Amino acid sequence: MTTRTGGPHITPQRPIAPWTRTRLRTAPGSALAFAALVLLTAFLAAAFPRAVDTNESSSLRQDLSGARPARSMLELTTPQPGLELPQSDREDALRPQVIAAAYRKVLPLLPAPMRADTTQSAYGVQTTKFLVGQEAWLPRPDGLPPEFTLAAQAGLAHHSTVRTGRLPTAPTGLTRQTKELEAVVTTATAKVMRMHVGSLVHIGTSDSQALAVRITGIVDPIRPKSNYWSADQTLRNPGLASTGGRPPLVYWKAGLLIAPEAAPALLGTLGEPHAYWRIAPDATGLTAQQLPLLSDRVASLESGPDLLRLKEAAGRHASLTTDMDDILASHMEMRSAVRPVVAVAAVGTGTVAAVTLAMTGGLSAARRGAELALLRARGGSLRGIGGRLLVESAVVALPASGAGLVAAILSVPDGRLVPAVVGVVAVTVLACLAQPVCALALHRRPRLRAERADAVKVRPGRRRTVAELSLLLLAVGAVVTLRRRGTSDSGDHLVSAGPVLVGLIAALVLARLYPLPLRWAARPAGRLRGALGFLSLARAGRSSATGVLPLLALLISLTTAAFGGAVLSGVADARDHAALLTVGADARISRPGPSGTGALPDGLEQAVLDVPGVRMVTRVWIGPTFDLPRAHPIKGDMSPALVGVEPQSYARITRELGSDRFPDRVRQESPGAKGAGVLNAIASPGVAETLGREPQLIRLAGGDFTVRVVAVRSRMPAVAVPEFLLVDASKLRQRVATTVLLASGDELDGRALQAAARAGGKDVNVQLRSEVRASFADSPLQTGTERIYAAAIVAGAGYAVLALLLSLLQSAPERTALLARLRTMGLTRRQGRRLLLLEALPQAAVAALGGLLVGWATVRLLAPGVDLTQLALASVPGLASEADVSLRADAWSLALPALGVVALAGAVAAGQAWWAGRRGSISELRAGDMR
After folding, report:
1. What is the CA radius of gyration of the chain?
2. Rounded to an integer, what distance in angstroms lies between the CA atom of residue 444 and that of residue 376?
3. How far apart are CA 562 and CA 684, in angstroms?
4. DSSP letter at 247?
5. Is residue 809 over pLDDT 80?
6. Does residue 317 have a pLDDT over 80?
7. Which of 166-170, 467-471, 888-892 has the highest average model confidence (pLDDT)?
8. Which of 24, 240, 694, 924 is 20 to 30 A from 269 via CA?
9. Each residue's pLDDT tens digit, 331-385
10. Half-sphere exposure of 657 (CA within 13 A, CB side)
């Protein structure tokens, strides 16, 4: 038996040098630059959605925690125990043990994601109707006695500090027959009500039914603005209330805090006591993604399955009231208005970044054109070449993308992870595919030599024409949709891509058209004596056919910058105008009074004028309200405020600050029917509609006068009431005192102005326009959106600059070889610098001018459909309903980026000419070089 032996066994050998490692070692600088670009792009793609989530979540938490406790709390109440129950059962229902046990049962029943803040929540028993105080020594502003509410609120010792006296106590087993209780009051209540330790107050409708309350202590709230003290502010601070008569009479309302064990005694009064559980929400862990679920839970607590569970714990007659649903609805409205505006910046910056990554792959493929052409000529397949290039890109892009994701998570710790990962994956895929796709597109067929890629050789085909027309129709549809519908649909990304599509169409149109005027200009330049003008125009007119990508990046970046500048400018202008209407000038000095504002001392005007920075002061008198001679046909009876001003100074101060023009006719007085003068007035729309254009008699306590409405204004500076009648104060018969001082000037010293105003009285208030304007942007969603927009503009500009540099670097070898050839023909270094500069400037100038025009046109086209009211004035709904907040074309955001493009192109061309001049011609010229 013989054994067959085969041929010699050949062991496969590994390549001497792996392809990927060799390529990375050959060009480490390019690999590091590509990795840095991918890392930065991945970081921005991951950080953007997390930053948006952070802003929305922070705004939601601030809206809930910053709202008045009376609006944000969940108040669960049960009515007074029914009269059909035995007396002992009625009393037991209000004892502190029963109320506390129900509180402990209610807290776990709150549905997620809602949680209670037990440090601010309160529960107890309180009278629902106010009881009249009988003592004569109690304050009576208009002769009416004060009214009190009695509250047996648990936890008083933990939420207050005893200033004098002691906390109230109550004997065990107290019943409704008890006629004397102990109570404490806050310091503010004691001061207004003239109470002290030991004071005895009889509360009730008559002496026989009056309840005697002895004050045992005066306390200071530990956290006055917490839910415990501010859910019912009467318990902390007394307030004035008024009757509904004419004229209205005012009286005081205050609260008395009794011991929880004394709650059953309230059944012996006519105050109709009820048990309550005021639950403060804990907003620390809420996120924007939980907002829809939270809205559903609030609705279920008000009238749904969750309310039934609460009734099982608190009683079958329990009911829950809250204004949290209004807070959540307001937040959702603002978020829905802000999201489309932010999406415009995201789409614009993302498009520029994608174009830049594509240009990076194209530049790398063009630089390696000879190498890849040689591989194709020797039998290399497209699959094999593409696979190797894909591995090269992936080896660099994958670690860089991972590092960018980690950096984004560390920089923006809050926010969802999935959108960040999706963004990073998209960046990674684009970075890995850019170079292989560009290389395969250039080497679909083997090439024997380097071919020209400029407009002389490559002509636009039918497919490109069809694609450009399709994009044109898409852009027109997006713009028309946005103008008609606005930004109400936050899920329509086509609308958000409107500025990008406009920039895309402009780039395609300019790429087709701009070589034509350059070629036409090259013909007369060829007849001139010098060759530089002809050469520069001829080469600029035959630019690379792939030059649409850098032009696209520049135009989209300039358009996004213009749109972003218009957004920020529109928001700033709206806030400036709203602050001016609220304050009236750069500063407003006033003091509170019975009718809203009180009289200011005579020497205060001169003291304000002496403050450094104050240029002008005008006096305003805001008088009491008055009745119109006839009722409004829709609104019924109105009581507008009478405002008297000095027409000359008031008109000057409003004109300087850019407010509504003050009509000169207000200063004039028309002759009346019987020799009496008729005052010309400015009226609010409601007052003007009621009075009409004919003279009308106005009756006041200080004297009657006749007015004629000569102008209608919805708002006037320093006039905060919605309905008013503004006249010349000097024409009134009655003597009017100054109630408001309006100061204007440059760089007002707020502290000095405060000191000068306080010299006229401790109750004199100073309101600065700068502070009021700053308060309009107190929401994290507003400030965060502005920061995101500014960052998007900067990032887009950076990518556009990089795209311009990549475009110039792609053609750098060709220009260097051209300079070397021309230097052998006698071209000097100075002429070489001029040639490169003249060649680069036409393209940069076209891009800059096109970007400026496209940016301006985009703002004009999209302005009617973009509403910035919620972004600018969400915190002041009264002004937001009247303000016209729209895009404002900002000259700086239009001109500066365009000039920067031209300057950068010139600087790069000059730098390249200087570097080429330092190298010899022999090192740049090779036999057979087709550059």
Report:
1. 39
2. 9
3. 37
4. S
5. no
6. yes
7. 166-170
8. 240
9. 888 888 788 888 888 888 888 889 888 888 888 887 777 778 778 877 778 888 8
10. 32
Taking the C-alpha atoms of residue 495 and residue 900, their distance in angstroms, rounded to an integer, is: 29
Instruction: State how far the Cα of 905 lies from the Cα of 900, in Å rounded to an integer.
Output: 8
d(CA 588, CA 582): 9
For residue 883, give the nearest of 572, 565, 577, 487 by alpha carbon: 577
For residue 401, pLDDT beyond 90: yes
Q: Which two tokens stand for residue 485?
A: 């519908």
Tokens of 307: 């309310």
SS (H, E, C) 91-115: HHCCCHHHHHHHHHHHHHHCCCCCC
- 10 Å CB burial of residue 187 (0-12, 13-18, 19+) is middle
Rounded to whole angstroms, how far apart are CA atoms 262 and 733? 59
Q: What are phi and psi of 719, to 5 degrees?
A: -105, 105
Q: Please tell me the distance from the alpha carbon of residue 394 to that of residue 390, in angstroms, as a whole number.
A: 6
Query: Do the Cβ atoms of 454 and 545 come closer than 8 Å?
Result: yes
Helix (H) or strand (E) holding 197: none
| Listed residue (611, 608, 589, 603) closest to 740, CA to CA | 589
Distance, in Å, from the CA atom of 269 to the CA atom of 292, rounded to the nearest integer, reads 44
d(CA 866, CA 858): 12
**H/E run at residue 75:** strand 74-78
Round to whole Å and give the CA distance between 583 and 768.
Answer: 7
What 3-state class would DSSP assign to 678? Answer: strand
Contact (Cβ atoms closer than 8 angstroms) between residue 95 and residue 264: yes
738/602 Cα distance (integer angstroms): 8
- Give the C-alpha separation, 838 to 816, whole Å: 15
Tokens 């991918």 correspond to 38
- The single-letter code of the amino acid at 576 is D
Q: Which residue has the tokens 């000169």?
A: 664
**457-479 per-residue burial string, b: 16 or more CB within 10 A, e: under 16:** eeeeeeeeeeebeeebebbeebb
Concatenating the DSSP letter of every residue in 601-624 gives PTTHHHHHHTSTTEEEEEEEEEEE
Q: Are 785 and 885 in contact (CB under 8 A)?
A: no
Phi, psi of 423 (to 5 degrees): -65, -40
**Contact (CB, 8 A) for 751 and 768:** no
Q: Convert 727-737 to b/e letters by CB count within 10 Å (16 or more is b).
A: bbbebbeeebe
Contact call for residues 582 and 774 (beta carbons, < 8 A): no
138 neighbors 195 (Cβ within 8 angstroms):
no
Question: Can you tell me which residue has the tokens 């007119």?
Answer: 541
The secondary structure of the chain in percent helix, strand, coil, rounded to multiples of 5, reads 55, 15, 30
How many Cβ atoms sit within 10 Å of the Cβ of residue 136?
7
Closest residue by Cα to residue 879 from 572, 569, 578, 659: 578
Question: Looking at 137-272, which runs of residues are DSSP E strands?
Answer: 147-153, 160-165, 180-186, 200-203, 211-221, 239-242, 250-258
Closest to 879 (Cα-Cα) out of 645, 576, 566, 487: 576
CA–CA distance, 301 with 411 (Å, rounded to integer): 38
Is residue 151 within 8 A of residue 258, CB to CB? The reply is: yes
How do beta strands 641-645 and 740-745 pair?
unpaired
**CA separation for the pair 692, 681 (Å, rounded):** 12
Residues 6+ apart with CB under 8 A from 825: none
Whose CA is closest to 357, among 393, 387, 389?
393
What's the CA gap between 545 and 527, in Å, rounded? 27
Asked whether the predicted pLDDT for residue 923 surpasses 60, the reply is no
Residue with tokens 């047996």: 152
Residue matched to tokens 């502070």: 771
How many angstroms separate the CA atoms of 224 and 221, rounded? 5
Q: Looking at residue 738, what DSSP letter applies?
A: -
Cβ–Cβ under 8 Å, residues 371 and 450 = no
Residue 629 three-state SS:
coil
